[in-house]
Write a structure and sequence with these properties.
eight-stranded antiparallel β-sheet; globular; translation initiation factor activity; Probable translation initiation factor IF-2; binds guanosine-5'-diphosphate; GTP-binding; initiation factor; single chain
Length: about 450
């Protein structure tokens, strides 16, 4: 509370922590997000959760309504939690902010019956690399025989020896998860035993199906943010906005637009912005800032309404000219009274932070975003597979031309992650003996390539 007095010429406020949901396919990421949104709508008054672009904001008073006695709102001065709507570690690794991941915290969803799967491990690698604090949601506990929601959520009641025994009897699976986390170098425990959520990973049993455990999950996230991340939430609310592009897409009546998360400052409808693009920074003037209309109005009116300004942390759709080359995952900076060259240099630097070491000889990698390009490249580097070219964008004939110059037969390959392969490029690849690998799961993409290499090696023996 005391640091709120320290208002100088800039206006320091605490922004909402940004939360991402990661995990293996079918483990319940989408269901969990839906359940959190649903709980918020039920617990809040109408209008309690605001419509955002690309994210859902759950304010503190709504969290406290959901969590009941678990959350006393007077203990907190962070405004709530902002959940990024697109689940999956692919989108997570795409969403960068200065020097790291856009999300401040992550929920790693693990199906209790299924345990750690390849994408769980992939997600853990990314969380480690970005040093993002996370909580494990051990999902689908409603499917474990013997689980009794009224008895087994110990934080909601005083934990006695009897309930502790019940918990440990039905929760073998949860302890298996804790074991798997420790195999991966994390100290973890059931969340009600964790004292320091930064040092230890808390495992929260939940059911996205029944909603059980959601209050506990929200409580733990709110506590973690308040205790360990408050300093990072301090922003200059009225300063020039800083954000990340979530998606580049066509919006009817506005042409190419950006769905973006603003995580510092404010963006205004009359601002000039600098955005990371395929050919370098794009400088352009905002034409309109758009937000979704409240749900009940959508059917009758236009889908979006224009707003004058959006302050961090928040999602917004930005309409502006010249956005065709903008890249998902790239930085956005508001120019306002800042030095133009300096801001452009900042964006350039952030774009070049995506380090991919390319060599004279190696494979070609194409990906949909900077974040995914980086993730694939680091996987390939770990496996000592050299890369000759790594770029964002569709596979074009010129990529095939590059790939065919490789001397090693195993290197005459293009790994395409979540991007289109142009027809001309596909034809040319076939003609020139360049093999195309296409996937939108990193480990499958690399596995496909590995199998191909094994095949070639075997045929050479
Ligand atoms: P995602 O691929 O990780 O986003 O997973 P989804 O949210 O699409 O869930 C995959 C499947 O698991 C769907 O059929 C869900 O209905 C189901 N599911 C998700 N959460 C739960 C849960 O808590 N309990 C049960 N019984 N089923 C669940």
């Amino acid at each position: 509370m005391s640091d709120q007095d320290a208002t100088t010429e800039t206006e320091h406020t605490l922004r909402t922590p940004i939360v991402a949901v990661l995990g293996h396919v079918d483990h319940g990421k989408t269901s969990l997000l839906d359940r959190i949104r649903g709980s918020a709508v039920t617990a809040g008054e109408s209008g309690a959760i605001t419509q955002h672009i690309g994210a859902t904001a759950v304010p503190l008073d709504v969290i406290s309504n959901i969590a009941g006695e678990l959350v006393d709102p007077t203990d907190f001065d962070l405004p709530g939690l902002l959940f990024i709507d697109t689940p999956g570690h692919h989108s997570f690794s795409t969403l960068r902010s200065r020097g790291g991941a856009l999300a401040d915290i992550a929920i790693l969803v693990v199906d209790v019956n299924d345990g750690f799967q390849p994408q769980t491990l992939e997600a853990i690698d990314i969380l480690k690399r970005t040093q993002t604090p996370f909580i494990v949601a051990a999902n689908k506990i409603d499917t474990i025989a013997g689980w009794n929601p009224n008895e087994n959520m110990p934080v909601q009641q005083t934990m006695d020896a009897q309930s502790e025994r019940v918990v440990s009897r039905v929760n073998e699976k949860l302890y298996e998860l804790i074991g798997e986390l420790s195999d991966n170098g994390f100290s973890a425990d059931m969340y009600w035993r964790v004292q320091n959520f930064q040092a230890n990973i808390g495992v929260v049993p939940v059911s996205a199906e029944t909603g059980e455990g959601i209050p506990d999950l929200l409580t733990v996230m709110m506590g973690l943010s308040q205790r360990y991340m408050k300093a990072e939430m301090e922003i200059d609310a009225t300063g020039p906005g800083v954000g990340t592009v979530l998606e580049v897409k066509d919006t009817q009546g506005f042409g190419t637009t950006l769905d973006a998360i603003i995580y510092d400052g404010t963006i205004r409808a009359d601002d000039t912005i600098v955005v990371g693009g395929l050919q370098g920074p794009i400088v352009t003037d905002v034409r309109a800032l758009l937000r979704p209309r409240p749900l009940e109005e959508i059917r009758t009116e236009k889908q979006f309404e224009q707003v004058d300004a959006v302050a961090a942390a928040d999602g917004v759709k930005i309409a502006a000219p010249d956005l065709d080359d903008a890249i998902a995952g790239a930085p956005i900076r508001v120019l306002r009274d800042r030095d133009r060259a300096e801001v452009i240099a900042e964006v350039e630097e952030e774009l070049s932070e995506i380090e991919v070491t390319t060599q004279e000889e190696g494979v070609v990698v194409k990906a949909d975003t900077l974040g995914s390009l980086e993730a694939i490249s680091s996987t390939l580097e770990e496996e000592e597979i050299p890369i000759m070219r790594a770029e964002v964008g569709a596979v074009a004939p010129r990529d095939v031309r590059v790939a065919e110059t490789a001397n090693e037969p195993t290197h005459r390959a293009i790994l395409a992650f979540s991007v289109e392969v142009l027809d001309d490029a596909r034809r040319l690849a076939e003609q020139e003996g360049v093999t195309l690998f296409e996937d939108d799961v990193i480990y499958q993409l690399v596995e496909g390539y590995d199998d191909h290499v094994t095949e070639i090696e075997e045929s050479q023996q």
